[in-house]
């Protein structure tokens, strides 16, 4: 009984030992898997005998199998022997382990053969598939692999015989493979280099984005500083610019008073645009003004004392009559389609008020020294005495203050010429009267001087001036632009002191408000030999003649012929 237990123990120990040796000897996975698979599918003979006759010894060998013994599924008595015979009859390949070899080995004492084990180990190393992911050999015989070659050990190819083979790489066959620690250092350096490159790229991108953002912010900041602070805010503020202030100081003052957005931008803008010569004084400025308009106002100069902020402007062109001026004062020229607080009726009432006229004559004696009286046949005493220009009005402005400003402007323009007029043969009224006719007869400075010279020549020769404009004024037809029909159909026989076809001289008074250019043309006329002139009815160009025959020819060419077309 003891011998039977020992025999059974020895057989089981030997089996486990063989499997362990095969695993330790780097026996391929396929051999192990094939063996385990066959062990599960087809029980070995010792197992079969163990189940049926568990008690046997090495001396007695295999027990006798009765004919009526039923083998467990999938075996039976008939085909078991045939399978065993077929397996024994098949030729064995070198190194192949069969059931017979295994049974034989399990029936005999175990003897370790080192030479045979080395041969099997060598063959398994190069031919058999690995039992595990990496072979386990003696460190002395184990070659050194790099990380790359170690990774390739897990890659296999399928051979013709169905056995997986390990691919041969240059690193595996190298006699002096690179140490693992060196590869780790290289990979670490490479990884560090890649990380540094990414960091540099991120820094560059951030720098570019920051530069673009800074550029856009600078552009927007400068652009907003050049534009008006608030285009919709027309509030007027009185700003004092001290004498000797630099553009930097002026910019600071304007920024502090809420006129501009940034004083530094004002300084650089005026320097870039070459605005210089800023003057001191009080200025009425608003946040709706641009830097260029502010700079131009500063160049013109301010007032010594603060003035009320302007609400609008009234523009009076050259050559308008008082009746035409009355219509103009109702229009605010500072805004489109805007109106002023003044009316035509109030204006005409003021300019005809004897008390107001007397007040002006007292205030400006040089201007009104020769003012015609109503009895002289003038239509309006102040006709021609209001200087054509643009005038601001404030909340405190009235029609009377507005007319006063126009008279004051005329006095200012004539002040340099009062002495010259006093030493001449003409009075201020006569100068203004002739200048008002020249204003209607010529369109440029040269023509004005020649027309004035021609009138002087006619007066010197005792001739009448024969101006159509004076007759049109007497008829009440003198407008901003006289039509050709009006000019050609005048009544030269009209009994009016303004009819220069009947009466010598320039009439009892001016027929419109002349420009300074026409006034200076009368004071400094051209010296010529002309006695006649006519204007082209299509172009306005003036043609002068010395004789009446030349004049008639010019009239036929530049007036009658073109009127027929």
TrEMBL record:
Membrane topology label: Single-pass membrane protein
GO CC terms of this entry: plasma membrane
One GO term (biological process): peptidoglycan biosynthetic process
Residues annotated as site: Important for catalytic activity: 441
Compositionally skewed regions (Basic residues) per UniProt: 172-193
CDD domains: MltG_like (cd08010)
Keyword tags: Cell membrane, Cell wall biogenesis/degradation, Lyase, Membrane, Transmembrane, Transmembrane helix
Catalysed reactions, semicolon-separated: a peptidoglycan chain = a peptidoglycan chain with N-acetyl-1,6-anhydromuramyl-[peptide] at the reducing end + a peptidoglycan chain with N-acetylglucosamine at the non-reducing end
GO terms of molecular function: lytic endotransglycosylase activity
Feature: compositional bias, Basic and acidic residues: 79-98
Main location: membrane
EC number: 4.2.2.29
Record localization: Cell membrane
Spans through the membrane: 195-219
Positions of the UniProt region annotated as Disordered: 58-98, 137-193
Entry similarity comment: Belongs to the transglycosylase MltG family.
Functional note: Functions as a peptidoglycan terminase that cleaves nascent peptidoglycan strands endolytically to terminate their elongation.
Protein name from the UniProt record: Endolytic murein transglycosylase
């Amino acid at each position: 009984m003891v011998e039977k237990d020992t025999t059974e123990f020895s057989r089981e120990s030997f089996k486990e030992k063989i499997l362990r040796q095969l695993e330790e000897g780097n026996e391929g996975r396929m051999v192990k898997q094939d063996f385990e698979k066959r062990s599960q599918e087809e029980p070995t003979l010792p197992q079969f005998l163990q189940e049926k006759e568990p008690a046997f010894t090495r001396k007695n060998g295999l027990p006798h199998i009765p004919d009526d013994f039923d083998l467990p599924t999938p075996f039976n008595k008939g085909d078991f022997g045939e399978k065993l015979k077929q397996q024994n009859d098949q030729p064995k390949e070198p190194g192949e382990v069969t059931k017979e070899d295994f049974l034989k080995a399990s029936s005999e004492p175990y003897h370790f053969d080192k030479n045979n084990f080395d041969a099997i180990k060598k063959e398994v190393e190069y031919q058999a598939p690995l039992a595990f992911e990496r072979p386990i050999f003696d460190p002395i015989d184990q070659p050194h692999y790099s990380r790359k070659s170690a990774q390739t050990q897990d890659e296999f190819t399928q051979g013709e015989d169905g056995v997986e083979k390990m691919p041969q790489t240059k690193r595996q066959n190298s006699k002096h493979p690179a140490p693992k620690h060196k590869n780790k250092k290289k990979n670490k350096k490479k990884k560090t280099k890649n990380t540094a490159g990414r960091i540099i790229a991120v820094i560059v991108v951030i720098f570019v984005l920051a530069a673009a953002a800074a550029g856009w912010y600078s552009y927007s900041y400068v652009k907003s500083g050049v534009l008006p602070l608030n285009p919709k805010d027309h509030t007027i503020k009185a700003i004092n610019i001290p004498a000797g202030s630099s553009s930097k100081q002026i910019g600071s003052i304007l920024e502090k008073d809420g006129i501009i957005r940034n004083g530094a931008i004002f300084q650089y803008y005026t320097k870039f645009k070459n605005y210089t010569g800023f003057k001191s004084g009080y200025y009425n400025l608003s946040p709706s003004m641009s830097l260029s308009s502010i700079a131009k106002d500063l160049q013109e100069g301010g007032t010594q004392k603060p003035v009320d902020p302007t609400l609008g402007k009234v523009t009076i062109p050259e050559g308008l009559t008082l009746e035409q001026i009355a219509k103009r004062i109702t229009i605010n020229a500072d805004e489109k389609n805007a109106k002023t607080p003044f009316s035509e009726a109030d204006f005409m009432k003021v300019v005809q008020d004897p008390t107001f006229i007397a007040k002006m004559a007292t205030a400006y004696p040089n201007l009104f020294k020769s003012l015609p009286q109503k009895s002289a046949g003038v239509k309006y005493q102040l006709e021609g005495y209001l200087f054509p220009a643009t005038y601001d009005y404030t909340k405190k402005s009235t029609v009377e203050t507005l007319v006063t400003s126009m008279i004051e402007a005329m006095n200012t323009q004539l002040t340099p010429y009062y002495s010259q007029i006093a030493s001449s043969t003409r009075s201020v009224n006569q100068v203004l009267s002739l200048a008002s006719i020249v204003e209607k007869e010529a369109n440029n400075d040269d023509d004005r001087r020649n027309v004035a010279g021609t009138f002087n020549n006619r007066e010197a020769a005792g001739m009448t001036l024969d101006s159509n404009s004076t007759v049109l004024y007497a008829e009440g037809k003198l407008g901003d632009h006289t039509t050709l029909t009006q000019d050609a159909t005048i009544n030269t026989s009209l009994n009016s002191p303004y009819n220069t076809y009947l009466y010598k001289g320039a009439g009892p008074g001016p027929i419109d408000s002349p420009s300074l250019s026409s006034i200076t043309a009368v004071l400094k006329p051209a010296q010529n030999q002309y006695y006649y002139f006519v204007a082209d009815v299509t172009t306005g160009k003036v043609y002068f003649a010395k004789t009446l025959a030349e004049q008639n020819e010019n009239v036929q060419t530049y007036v009658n012929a073109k009127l027929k077309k």
